[in-house]
Amino acid sequence: MGPAPDEVILDVRDLRKAFGGVKAVDGASFAVPRGKISGLIGPNGSGKTTTFNLLTGVAAPDGGQILYNGADVAGLRPYQTFALGITRTFQITRVFREMTVLENMLSVTGLGLPDRVARQRAEELIAFVNLGHLRGEYGGRLSYGQQKLLEFARALMTDPDLVLLDEPAAGVNRTLLQQLLEQIHHLQEQGKTILIVEHDMNVIMNHCERIFVLDFGVKIAEGRPAEIQRDERVIEAYFGRRRS
Amino acid sequence: MALLELADVSAAYGPIQILHGVSLHVDAGEVVAVIGPNGAGKSTTFKVIMGFINYLGGRMRFDGHDLVGQRPDRILALGLGYVPQGRVVFTQMTVRENLEMGAYLERDKAKVQAAMEWVFALFPRLAERLKQQAGTMSGGEQQMLAMGRALMTRPKMLMLDEPSLGLSPRLVDEVFDKTVEMARAGLTVMLVEQNAARALEISDRGYVLELGRNRFEGRGPDLLANPDVRRLYLGGAGGPVSAAPA
Q: Does domain B2-87+154-232 have CATH number 3.30.420.10?
């Protein structure tokens, strides 16, 4: 008997999205295992961020299914996917610059929590990302890496089940990155599912259990890091091919 | 003597430092490729050379001139041409107008005309399309126009940022063929490419950057054959390893 197959939290089937004549996502299918850290990678323009936008309702797909806990969430609005337990961060941070760290955390609405409880959660999460000493500082005065930590903490205010991270390592110094990665592992230990889009291959290969590779909007490979690193199609997608 | 030389150059976009001490040189007549995985700092290297972004430190010289602190138009006038990423042409202008814009530093009309003849010799198709509005051209034609426009200053050296990006395979071939042709015509060329295999194939030498630092350099065929270079793109080449899982 082999190990039990992974339970799937997010089952993406034949997902499609075109912008004008450009097929950004062109029939991508992949199944994200529950409770694990997975990576979604691919060369520039392979459809990673568009996929994230489709998964979170930022854009509506032209076709395909997004089964989240078995129910199709394709075409829902962002606040609806958010309410279902899907949250995300952005490639370029989107913190409120004129709000303090704590105010940024409390800007998350629709939690259905008493203020006191929301505030307590905000304080806990600020401490979790080691920004406690900056809780009264304006978002715009944080370093870029600190803004990423704040956005990450804010994304956790809803106590989501599925956390989508869009390039968490970009522009973050090594010390803060190390911190962020430890926190991602803590989340996983708490039973959360994490899906990371990231160009820093050291982050992907050292921290993801399962990796999905997109190229031209389709999945071209899937597997464990060591398998992906040896996959000729993946190497070719990244490195190009000599003229035959 | 090197035509272009960078020593220990650092640069940032706003607060985010991208280059952490990049060094490279290009000799007259060479074709040099700059490759590396996403976020390596390839395009940033071009932008700091052209004076577009925040220079933090290091030495940059071109043809005996110090580039540090120079305005982009001054750098252009020194004979350094630049074709930005993404086929940036003036879409509302005709082919001729685009080419004329490329020569905006030149006041002598006869010299502009001579430059245009030289560009037509390299890109005959542009001569046939002089009155066409650039926005109505195909992606490949726009890339040729962008290259032709950069040649209007009669540069000594041309820097091409991702010339094959977003082009169909046939047009990719054409762009690389044109690059080889320009080199044969005496131009020094430095190109940044995500299609590393193709870029190295036509280059005398290449530099491999990773996360804003030099990782490998050497002759094109040697880099192409080096498995560590290929592996760099997917991690695991003994690069700076970030936090291992707890």
A: no
